[in-house]
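S1.2 Input.
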Amino acid sequence: MLPAMIANLKRPPRTVTEWLADAVRAGAIVTTVVALFILPFTDFAVLSMALPAVMLARMIGLRSGVDLLTCATVFVAAGSNVIDLYRAWTGWDLVVHALCTGVLAAVAMVLLDDGGVIAPTGRRRTPIVVATIAGLALSAVWEMVEWFGYRFITDAIFVTYDDTIGDMIAGGAGALAAGVLASRFALTRRDRSAL
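S1.3 Output.
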């Protein structure tokens, strides 16, 4: 699994969509490094949490469109926190939770499959169930991170019971949608096996 991930990381972009995904990835890295020097540490920390996802999207060989969607969604989610869009736009929080959890559930599904944790069964229900479970688990972890940040770092983080449950429902719905799409379309490039 690791040699294939390294090969995917080294592989030059071949299509316009792959170039765009790499541009978003590079923008996320540069923005996060700059944020370390000019933004409060909490904003830098939020932006830096997006970096593993934008790098993993390339390393696991996601199809270029899925890669681009993952990078853009995760970085918009982090950036929305930094520029305070979640408080400014009603409902934006739920939209982002649904989209972000959906793409992260897709990444988790590929990682679980590549790691041999789940076996391909050829059944269409498997991606739906696995993605939904992964998305709900990721939502729960994120809500715990938010609570920890609120409790121990800054009370500027918005945490209420209704917000937590609403975020988890939106995340679960996004993961379910990702599972339905993954049950019908391949998430990874066709040439992954050649690596």
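S1.4 Remarks. The CA atoms of residues 124 and 155 lie 44 Å apart.
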